[in-house]
Amino acid sequence: MNDSVESTFPEPGESRIGSINKRGLWTLYVKESRRFTKVWLQTLAAPAITTILFMIIFSLAFGGENRSMKGLEYSTFLAPGLLVMAMLQNAFANTSSSILIGKVQGNIVDVLMPPLSNSELMIGFVAGGLTRALAVGGSVAIAFLLMPSVSLTVHHWWAILYFGVSAGIMLSLVGIITGIWAEKFDQAAVITNFVVAPLSLLSGTFYSIERLSGNWQLISQANPFFYMIDGFRYGFIGVGDSDLTIGVIYIFILNLFLWLLAHSLFKSGYKLKS
């Protein structure tokens, strides 16, 4: 192992804090982070450019004079939703591809063999996915701030932090479950194309659900992506389409369920140790 890698690790005497394998957990996190930073043009720049193109296209198509949403210029309404959508998709991509590639290449054992508990494995993977989500979100936010038509003004920091971090955690967990379940890339693509993408696009990213009929509003309110995007947008524009208390509780319970499910899959070794 070269010196540059070793320099990122804790000293031997600091390898554990209580019962936590600090060195092992940090090593897994560094591995998960370097997976996307080494190919940043593909993992960071490309999603940012795609999101910026969404902004330009939809602003031209639905923006313009006298076009507003929730009393705001359309591009200002649209920006927070696009930010979260990019974060969701990249958090999922990071964890699902990491585990699936490890299984396909046969080196998943390198992650399972070290003295890491199931919870430590979970934390390492989720932290890597969350880091990628925040990195993409940060790059997109900087690009939006440079656009004269977009006004990102913080109204509620707690909502931005809670819903932004919760979104990254949720899709990282979904990515872990998908990576464990899938045996080939086609199966993982099914979840991306028929679950993650539709729920992202039909979550109020591009519109306010107030414009939908009653039944479609009920369907939207069952979509967890809607609460993450609406809550995150509320942090920037100060108004939302949902009851934030319901959103906070719903997202917390769903994240807890996904954590327990992913943990049980690691514990049982489902499609990992066979």
TrEMBL record:
Membrane topology: Multi-pass membrane protein
Domain ABC transmembrane type-2, chain residue ranges per copy: 38-269
InterPro entries: ABC-2_transport_permease, ABC2_TM, ABC2_TM_bact-type, ABC_2_transport
Transmembrane regions: 39-62, 74-93, 121-147, 159-181, 188-209, 244-266
Molecular function terms from GO: ABC-type transporter activity
Keyword set includes Glycoprotein: no
PROSITE patterns to which the protein is assigned, alphabetical: ABC_TM2
Localization terms from the record: Cell inner membrane; Membrane
GO cellular component, one term: ATP-binding cassette (ABC) transporter complex
Record keywords: Cell membrane, Membrane, Transmembrane, Transmembrane helix, Transport
Family: Belongs to the ABC-2 integral membrane protein family.
Protein name (record): Transport permease protein
